Amino acid sequence: MGFLKKIFAGRHAAVQQLPAGTITVNRDGQVVTSTVSSAYPKKLLQDVGRDVLALFSEARVAQMPLAEVSLHFGSLRITARELRGGAIIFLFPQTALSPTPTISRL
Amino acid sequence: MDKRHKILVLDDDSDWLALCRDLLTAVPSRPEILTANTAKRALALLETESVRLLICDLKMPRIDGLQMLAIVRRQFPDVRTIVLSGLEDESYRSRAYALGVDLFWLKTEMQRNSKLFTECLESLLGRDQDVGFRGIQSKSLMDIIQMECLSRSSTVLRITRGPLVAKLWIQDGELIDAETEGARGEAAFQRALAWKTGTFENLPAEPERERTIQKPINALLLESAQNMDEAINPSEEPDLVESASHRKTMWKLSQLTREGADFVVAVPPEGQGEPEALGTQSVAAFSQWTRHTAEIARRLGDRLEAGPLLHVTGHNQERQVLMLAHGDRAFLIGWPTEVTENLPEKSRKLVASWDS
């Protein structure tokens, strides 16, 4: 029969994986290099790159140019360093045992 | 017959159990120490042994500490309980106290201050088991202090409100000293009394503590009640309003200086008032960046399913900034580059004291 399969096909309760690795983005927000798993959606990585560049650019507008920005979420830390208009972005999934980082110096 | 009290230590880490056993041998009344590495084993020991005190970890497999404490409170109401945890989240402290535990200690604090810990244990073991009532309290700090003073007790009240901690020294029913957020004496007492919520615990008395408060407790409480009344029903007189506002600004400035921060900008939600700032002239630009950053971070967190935003940090060669949310406002705090240790913790403390 198989009609149940047709009805329920594709309806999986999906748990999204957290990205882990490093990406570099150019000044246009395009991902240039990446060590994040290729299974991770490229669109989301581009969103990360674009938003991070927006943070750096807004900081410049506020007369507070930043060399490094870290966003600390409950289960992910995103650390980005400015690279001549682009950025290198480190993505660290967090666990209960992850050490609390102190701010590093460039 | 052996009259020694029995202490049961429950922790899933066997190395920690061995360390605890060593530390607890320093308790002056030399209690008998029992250990268990699972909640099941601990419950079996509580059934068979007359345990006076349970020291319990929170993070354990199968039955965690909070579940265990709920069971013990129901099945063994006479057993005194102490939580000894590595979890530094203040919400666990509140939840543990809500379950009626006698004390909450962090493992790191206990290792750093093992003498005070053993004194607390001794004090708990020494209290008469058959006298007095125990339960979950929901009293104002004023009520608690009055009770301690009326009963002529000697104790140190440790009051915790999020990251803020205050200590009140009571000796023979008289308040002799208070300390919080760098303030001491009457000023610290008035600050702590203004807190609306929090948890409290009794630590052993310190009779040697230097006396800084000379006024009787009733006079202090009356003054405090008047201050609170004025805060609720502010006076119409411009001089008094200006003076209160000046006092508030001075207090915030002293907080800023004491913590060592460069500036603070408090940003309300869009359209709900003006940003408030100390230590910087770039209020508009900084609040704009704070709002945008909060928005970008919220959007990114949702899209990546990364959990709630805790804080955002940024730095350049000259300064570092930390942005976090508190209540419905976002705060941007500027720090000198020399400050590297516990920046989020320091910022949270500064922000919590900002409105207190």
Overview of this structure, please?
The complex is a heterodimer of chains A (106) and B (356). Chain A contains two helices and five strands; from the N terminus they run αββαβββ. Chain A has 106 residues and is an alpha+beta fold. Chain A has a domain at 33-99. Chain A has a five-stranded antiparallel beta sheet with strand order 2-1-5-4-3, covered by helices on one side. Chain A is elongated and about 65 Å long. Chain B is α/β, with parallel strands linked by helices and 356 residues long. Chain B folds into three domains: 6-128, Response regulator (Rossmann fold), CATH 3.40.50; 141-229, no CATH class; 238-354, Dynein light chain 2a, cytoplasmic (Beta-Lactamase), CATH 3.30.450.30. Chain B has twelve helices and 15 strands. In chain B, the strands form three sheets. Chain B has a five-stranded parallel beta sheet, sandwiched between helices. In chain B, strands 9-8-7-6-10 form a five-stranded antiparallel beta sheet. In chain B, β7 and β8 (174-180) form a beta hairpin. Chain B is globular. The termini of chain B are far apart. The interface between A and B is medium-sized, with 34 and 36 residues.
Q: How would you summarize the topology of this molecule?
A:
The complex is a heterodimer of chains A (106) and B (356).
Chain A: H1 3-8, E1 21-25, E2 31-34, H2 42-61, E3 68-73, E4 76-83, E5 86-93
Antiparallel strand pairs in A: 1-2, 1-5, 3-4, 4-5
Chain B: E1 6-10, H1 14-24, E2 32-36, H2 39-48, E3 53-56, H3 65-75, E4 80-85, H4 90-98, E5 103-106, H5 107-112, H6 114-126, H7 141-150, E6 155-161, E7 164-171, E8 174-180, E9 183-184, H8 186-193, E10 199-203, H9 217-232, H10 238-259, E11 263-267, E12 276-278, H11 283-304, E13 309-315, E14 319-326, E15 329-336, H12 343-354
Parallel strand pairs in B: 1-2, 1-3, 3-4, 4-5
Antiparallel strand pairs in B: 6-7, 6-10, 7-8, 8-9, 11-12, 11-15, 13-14, 14-15
